[in-house]
Design goal:
Blueprint lengths: L1 E4 L6 E4 L3 E3 L2 E3 L5 H6 L8 E7 L4 E7 L7 E7 L1 E8 L10 E7 L5 E4 L3 E7 L4 E7 L8 E3 L20 H4 L12
Antiparallel strand pairs: 1-2, 2-10, 3-4, 5-12, 6-11, 6-13, 7-10, 7-12, 8-9, 8-11
């Protein structure tokens, strides 16, 4: 595995070693010992998988403490533009985002530590997205920041995304009181 530290401390881009030949490919998207060598010691306890059509936008989601989650996210099929926003109140990069394309070809994985809101926009129909989470889902602790918050300024490059009611009614960063 190769990693790149993004401009936001703790947020890592992971490129697994892929073995490819005429039969197809093989790689390890998760290896506890390999991640520990990278400084990732989370105890991942739940996998979530979603399938979305092109133009769906999910996010910016997170769970508050004590059920906060770190995540390893990747695309199994299709492509997304994936974004993480720093919501750690004492961080020098509070309110800043990092975005990149995750797709079935590049097999890139994004490690999102606790204290980030996360979202993505699907770029292809029938995109399958996998989230490996360090805490179990807890409905009472879930929260979200408005996907198109002008103070964050994420260039989603989409006019009318397909959104859930929760995402349509999320709060703005300026109205958010971080628990991180």
């Amino acid at each position: 595995m190769e990693t790149v530290q993004t401009k936001i401390k703790g947020l890592l881009v992971i490129q697994p070693k892929v073995f490819q030949d005429d039969r197809g490919y093989f790689f390890e998207p998760y290896n506890k010992n390999g991640l520990a060598k990278l400084g990732i010691h989370d105890d991942f306890s739940q996998d979530n998988q979603s399938m979305s059509q092109k133009g769906v936008l999910r996010g910016l989601h997170f769970q508050n403490p004590p059920f906060a989650q770190s995540k390893l996210v990747r695309v199994i099929k299709g492509a997304v533009w994936d974004v993480a926003v720093d919501i750690r109140k004492n961080s020098p990069t509070y309110g800043e985002y990092y975005g990149l394309e995750l797709n079935e070809t590049n097999k890139t994985i994004l490690y999102i530590p606790v204290g980030f809101a996360h979202g993505f926009k699907t770029l292809e129909d029938n995109t399958i997205f996998l989230y490996k989470c360090s805490a179990l889902y807890n409905k009472e602790s879930e929260d979200s920041i408005f996907w198109n918050d002008p103070d964050i300024g994420i260039p989603w490059d989409i006019k009318d995304p397909i959104l859930s009611d929760k995402d349509k009614n999320a709060k703005l960063l300026k109205d958010f009181q971080s628990k991180f």
